[in-house]
């Protein structure tokens, strides 16, 4: 299944237009992600690959290859020149493997180089992107960064538990279910303001984890 998925993603990749990698602008902080990968060729030459992800373009063009401005949701650049472009999720072919790219509602979901031998490594974020700023924060304040990561995880775990309990309560309200397993009443009954706070905190936690390229299908989808 993994091989079939990769072949399907590779089939969506189109040739690039040869344009140069645009400079990263401050106002693109939440709409664009740029990450880099250094690969050494058999001749010993180092080539710099860059993946440019346009989050708003992806949101607008799920059934189209380009948006009105001509920007693809994702493009691959080699030494600053566009060589491939694609919708998301996708897998860009590079020497020695592929670069797998996927997004979620909160940012980057996955952007890893997967070598032919199966080893994986995350790409290096642009210093001025949200991923790059979060990585710099982690290097300068490692303890605070670790604490923020733990709080984000705990918030999403709390949201998951509350969602599961409310879901169980809703299911056991069905008479046929209640007759066999009994009625479950959630011990957590949040007021309206509490639900709003937990929802906002969950979204912020999911965004924070996305900037660290941390995605868990169970946890991070709760916030959405």
Tag the structure with descriptive keywords.
six-stranded antiparallel sheet; elongated; alpha+beta; four-stranded antiparallel sheet; 2 domains; single chain; 224 residues
Describe this structure in words.
This protein is α+β, with helices and mostly antiparallel strands. Helix 3 crosses helix 4 and helix 4 packs across helix 6. About 4% of the residues have low confidence. The chain has 2 domains: 125 residues, no CATH class; 71 residues. It is built from 6 helices and 10 strands, in the order H-E-E-E-H-E-E-E-E-E-E-E-H-H-H-H.
List the SSEs and their pairings:
Blueprint: H1 2-11, E1 14-15, E2 32-40, E3 46-54, H2 55-60, E4 74-78, E5 81-86, E6 90-94, E7 97-104, E8 107-115, E9 120-122, E10 124-125, H3 130-140, H4 142-171, H5 175-181, H6 192-211
Antiparallel strand pairs: 1-5, 2-3, 2-10, 3-4, 4-5, 6-7, 7-8, 8-9
Strand count: 10
Oligomer: single chain
What letter string, H or E per element, gives the SSE order? Answer: HEEEHEEEEEEEHHHH
Q: Can you give the helix content as a percent range?
A: 25-40%
Task: Please sum up the structure shown.
The chain has 224 residues and is of the alpha+beta class. The chain is 38% helix and 26% strand. The protein folds into two domains: 125 residues, no CATH class; 71 residues.
């Amino acid at each position: 299944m993994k091989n079939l998925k990769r072949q399907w993603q590779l089939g969506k990749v189109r040739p690039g237009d040869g344009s140069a990698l645009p400079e990263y602008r401050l106002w693109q902080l939440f709409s664009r992600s740029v990450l880099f990968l250094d690969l050494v060729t058999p001749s010993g030459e180092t080539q710099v690959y860059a993946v440019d992800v346009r989050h708003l373009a992806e949101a607008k063009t799920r059934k189209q290859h380009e948006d009105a401005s001509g920007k693809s949701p994702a493009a691959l650049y080699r030494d600053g020149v566009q060589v491939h472009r694609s919708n998301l999720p996708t897998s860009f072919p590079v020497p020695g493997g592929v670069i797998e790219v996927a997004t979620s509602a909160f940012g980057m979901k996955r952007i890893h180089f997967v070598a032919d031998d199966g080893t994986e490594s995350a790409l290096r974020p642009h210093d001025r992107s949200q991923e790059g700023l979060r990585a710099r924060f982690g290097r300068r304040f490692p303890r605070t960064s670790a604490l923020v990561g733990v709080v984000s995880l705990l918030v999403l775990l709390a949201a998951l538990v509350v969602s599961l309990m409310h879901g169980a309560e809703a299911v056991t309200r069905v008479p046929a279910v209640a007759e066999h397993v009994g009625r479950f009443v959630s011990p957590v009954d949040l007021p309206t303001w509490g639900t709003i706070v937990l929802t906002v905190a969950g979204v912020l936690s999911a965004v924070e984890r996305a900037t660290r390229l941390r995605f868990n299908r169970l946890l991070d989808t709760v916030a959405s």
